[in-house]
Amino acid sequence: MSDRERGRVIEIRGAASAAEVEAAMVVLDSVLGNVRGWQLSRAQQRELYLATPTLLSIAVDDGRIVGAAGCDGASGIGGVAVLDECRGQGLGRQLLERAEAILRERGADTAGLGSLDGAVAFYLRCGYEAKLLVQFAPEVDDPEPVIADLLAGVLAGRIVDRRDWQGHPQLWLRESSVDWELKRRIEDVAGGVVAQYVMDKRL
Ligand SMILES: CC(C)(COP(=O)(O)OP(=O)(O)OC[C@H]1O[C@@H](n2cnc3c(N)ncnc32)[C@H](O)[C@@H]1OP(=O)(O)O)[C@@H](O)C(=O)NCCC(=O)NCCS
Known about the structure:
Helix content: 25-40%
Strand order of the largest sheet: 5-9-6-8-7
Number of domains: 2
Bound molecules: coenzyme A
Oligomer: single chain
Structural class: alpha+beta
CATH class of the largest domain: Alpha Beta
Number of helices: 6
Number of strands: 9
C-alpha cells in the first residue's frame, strides 16, 4: 500500500532554512553522489540554495527530507532526486513542477537540464523534449578528425548544429526522438566522445 493510500501526505515546498538546505544536500548526495555532473556543480548549487533556499524544492515526510529538486532561478533545473524507497509515487514530478513554477515566476520561458540516461524517460513523462548533445572529453587531444568521422559516418544525413562552448566544440542533433542505439554508435567512434540527452520544456 502506498503512502498516499495510507493517508500519509508528503509535503512539497521550498527549503526554509540553511539547515534544510544542508539536509537536502545530503539526500542529493546519497542519490547523485557518483554522478560526475553533480560533483562538478554541487558546490555552486549549494552556495546558491544557501543564499536563496526557496530555489530548492524539497519533499518532506513527517519531518524527514525524502527528495529534492533545485533550480538556478534563470532557466536551469539542478539536481532532482528522490530516495529509492519513495520513488514511483509522483514525488519527482511534483518536485520538478515546483522548480518549474519558480522559474516561470522569475520570467523564464523554458526549463532545461542535461539528463542522466536513466532519467530521460522520467523527463519525457513530465513533458520535456530531448536533444542529443555530443561533447569531447579532454582526453580527445584534437576533436576535429573525430568530428569529421562522425559527420561522414554515424551522423551522415542528419541535421547537426555545431557550436562552441568555452572554446570546446559541441554537436547538437536537431531531432527530438530518443535513440539509445544512435547514442551508443556515436560514443563508439572514439574514446572520450560523450553523447548526452539534454531535456527542455516550454513553461
Ligand atoms: C528520476 C526520479 C527523480 C523520479 O522520481 P519518482 O518520484 O520516482 O518519479 P514520479 O513517480 O514522479 O514519476 C513521474 C512519471 O515518470 C515516470 N518515471 C519515473 N521514473 C522513471 C524511469 N526511471 N523510467 C521510466 N519512467 C519513469 C513515472 O512512471 C511517472 O509516469 P506517469 O506520468 O505515467 O505517472 C528518481 O527515480 C530518482 O531520484 N532517480 C535517481 C536520480 C536521477 O536520475 N535524477 C535525475 C537527474 S538528471
